[in-house]
Amino acid sequence: MNEPLLKVEPATISSTEFFARARTRLTFDVPPGLVDPHIIPRTGDSGNDRMLEIVAQEQPVRPAAVLIPVVDHPEPTVLLTQRSPNLSSHAGQISFPGGKIDATDASPLDAALREACEEVGLKREFIDPVGYLDLYGTAFGFRILPTVAKVKPGFTLAINEAEVVDAFEVPLAFLMNPENHQIHTKEFRGMDRSYYAMPFAERYIWGATAGILRVLYERIYLS
């Protein structure tokens, strides 16, 4: 299957409206499902929901945080990374800056900001956090809490090649256009489950990253 879920017109809201809606609709309340295995993040896909139920029974919850850095250009972009091929999980994939939440992190927001600095050198003075997006569960037991942030242009990145091999920007308009939201299916223990993909030039954005971007679209662009 390789079709958008919704046949609707591309989103056309302005940068100002995007951030205004995000500040109205998002908060910094930490959902209890971040650490509670009995609370299953719901996806709206029966196969994915059942997969997350099974994973919660078999694996410990792994709380994680990522930053969705929306760079405030006249035409906004989202800063993404390509993970190192030498990592033990999600090697080589397109991702947001982020990682597991450490015991020393004051909050998921603090973890996301720390990881962004460690991975790509994005300093906190350029970042204006807006709020948490919905909790996102994965097949590996991760419970990911994304922080949407407005990023001031003019930053200089310093890539930590032990973790990522590249950082690049994708137009927000492309990522928030549902015509670019492909849906694919794969099997999990005899069940079909779906996942999103958003190919951009030579970059294949898929899995959790594309799924989180789809949630962003649904929260901010659909009313």
TrEMBL record:
Keywords: Hydrolase, Magnesium, Manganese, Metal-binding. Residues 60-196 form the Nudix hydrolase domain. It holds the Pfam family NUDIX. PROSITE patterns: NUDIX (PS51462). Gene3D superfamilies: Nucleoside Triphosphate Pyrophosphohydrolase (3.90.79.10). Its cofactor is Mg(2+); Mn(2+). InterPro entries: CoAse, NUDIX_hydrolase-like_dom_sf, NUDIX_hydrolase_dom. GO terms for molecular function: coenzyme A diphosphatase activity; metal ion binding. This is 8-oxo-dGTP pyrophosphatase MutT, NUDIX family. It comes from Bradyrhizobium brasilense. The lineage of its organism: Bacteria, Pseudomonadati, Pseudomonadota, Alphaproteobacteria, Hyphomicrobiales.
